[in-house]
Structures are given as structure tokens and as C-alpha cells.
Design brief:
Helix content: 40-55%
Number of helices: 9
Number of strands: 8
Number of domains: 2
CATH topology of the largest domain: Rossmann fold
CATH superfamily of the largest domain: HAD superfamily/HAD-like
Largest sheet: 6 strands, parallel
Order of helices and strands: EEHHHHEHEHEHEHEEH
CATH class of the largest domain: Alpha Beta
Strand content: 5-15%
Shape: elongated
């Protein structure tokens, strides 16, 4: 049975925290603020770049009236270095190839802006696995609004079962609101214990994903 499988990007397919933190800290340097530790910036990731900048601005007690300006500045920095230190999680390349080989149609639904999302996928040689990529600025809404995810699925044009794969509380809420099964990658950017995040299946190694998908689909026959 073939399925439509949509993935989150950051924290699910790729570890991009170092490049995100670098862009944020270059923005902070531009406005005369000391850099933040990557561990702190990691707590701000999860709802797209504007929210990342908003949380950073609040943490650093910078005037929130500058949010739009600083978001653009951060995005400019990020676009220049978005794949410098970003890497796929172990097993991702093999899992995507196996899922494609099984006949599944794959897409990406991320709150990262579409242009850098596509750049990261291309730079890391992952782009050819995906038929559709929806970024946080592709529509007028983004996750956890279910329209973001549902329109990604619709664009895949697959009549089979729908599965969403992500790593965070935002992804779990999106799946719940879209009423689709959620596969939780536990080694990404989640902030809550696994038991507190609603999910259908959890996994800690991407190499396990094709088998888990197969088992789930077999159970729905």
C-alpha cells in the first residue's frame, strides 16, 4: 500500500541548529548585543523564523518594535549560511530512498521559509526524494494551522493513507488538528517528554522508519 508521507524539516530530517544559532547571533552582533549560547537559542526554535526572532528579542530585552527589521536581518544572514553546518540525521538518506522505493510519495511541510528550505534540501542531496515542499511562507498560514499540512498532502496527489513525521510539540498539534497519524522523531528539538507529546508511533533512529511505516500500514489494511 502506498501512502502520502509528509515530513517536518528542522529537527526531523536535518539538524540545523548550528546554522540557525549562527544567523541569530550575527543579527545580535549587528545590533550590539552579545551572542547567546546555542542551547538557549535551541529553546526558541519550533514555530518558524519570525517566532525564533521574537523569542530572541524578548529574551534579550530588545525593543519589540524592531521585530520586523530584525527578522529580515536574521533571514538575510541565514540565507547566506543555511547549509554550512546543517547535516541530515543518521539514517535519513537511506530511509527516504527506501520509502520512495516502496512507492510512497514524500513531501516536506516546514515553518522554515520555502527558499532556504529548498536550498538546504538541495545542498544536502535530499531534494530529489520530495515531490512537494511547502515552507512557512508558501501559504498565508503555517503550522500548527492544519491547512498548511493538509494543502501539502493535497499537492502530493496521493489517494492512499496520510502520515505526518515530525519532532516537536508544534508538529504533534498540527497532526492532531489535521486528524492524521503522527510519527514522532524523539531526537530532534522537542521540549517536552515523549510521553507528553501525542503521537501514533515514536522512533529514535531514522533507519527504523521504513519498517515502522510498513507495520503501521499493514495494521490499517
Amino acid at each position: 500500500m502506498s501512502a502520502a508521507i509528509v515530513f517536518d524539516l528542522d529537527g526531523t530530517l536535518v539538524d540545523s541548529l548550528a546554522d540557525l544559532a549562527g544567523a541569530v547571533n550575527r543579527m545580535l552582533g549587528d545590533v550590539g548585543h552579545a551572542p547567546l549560547p546555542q542551547t538557549i537559542i535551541g529553546r526558541f526554535v519550533g514555530n518558524g523564523l519570525p517566532k525564533l526572532v521574537e523569542r530572541t528579542v524578548r529574551h534579550c530585552e530588545i525593543d519589540m518594535n524592531r521585530h520586523g527589521e530584525l527578522t529580515k536581518l536574521t533571514l538575510d544572514h541565514y540565507n547566506k549560511t543555511s547549509s554550512d553546518q546543517t547535516v541530515p540525521y543518521p539514517g535519513v538518506m537511506e530511509a527516504l530512498a527506501e520509502l520512495r522505493g516502496q512507492g510512497h510519495r514524500l513531501g516536506v511541510c516546514t515553518n522554515k521559509p520555502e527558499k532556504p528550505a529548498r536550498h538546504v534540501l538541495k545542498a544536502l542531496k535530499l531534494a530529489h526524494h520530495f515531490d512537494v515542499v511547502f515552507g512557512g511562507d508558501t501559504l498565508s498560514v503555517r503550522k500548527p494551522n492544519p491547512k498548511h499540512l493538509n494543502e501539502t498532502f493535497d499537492a502530493l496527489g496521493c489517494s492512499g493513507p496520510r502520515l505526518f513525521v515530525g519532532d516537536s510539540e508544534v508538529d504533534a498539534e498540527t497532526a492532531k488538528r489535521a486528524e492524521v497519524p503522527f510519527l514522532l522523531f524523539t531526537e530532534g528539538y522537542r521540549k517536552s517528554p515523549v510521553a507528553e507529546i501525542p503521537h501514533t508511533i515514536s522512533y529514535d533512529d531514522s533507519a527504523k522508519l521504513p519498517a515502522l511505516v510498513g507495520q503501521y500500514l499493514a495494521g490499517t489494511d
